[in-house]
Amino acid sequence: MGTVTGGGTYNYNATATLTTTPKDCYRFKQWSDGNTDATRSVTVTAAKTFTATFEPITYTITVTTDDTSMGSVSITE
Q1: Which residue has the higher pLDDT, 42 or 76?
Q2: Alpha carbon 7 to chain centroid distance?
Q3: Is the pLDDT of residue 17 over 90?
Q4: Of 19, 30, 59, 74, which one's alpha carbon is 20 to 30 angstroms from that of 9?
Q5: Are 47 and 38 in contact (CB under 8 A)?
Q6: 53 neighbors 30 (Cβ within 8 angstroms)
Q7: Would you list the DSSP string of 32-61?
Q8: 75: in domain
Q9: Domain presence at residue 13
């Protein structure tokens, strides 16, 4: 679904930059702490774990007919 960079060992008070890169057809949703910035900076004051969540990109398709007396329209998956 995607990759994450920025993990590793850092000195106290250093800044870690965490970056997400979604694969095709996916988008970044959020980090495990609720942050929704795809790239973020974290000041290191303790050991922490961050998990990135990705989700598929979806689209809605709407179909209509301009004259229902002529027939109907439907979508079949």
Answers
A1: 42
A2: 18
A3: yes
A4: 30
A5: no
A6: yes
A7: TTS---SEEEEE-SS-----EEEEE-----
A8: no
A9: yes
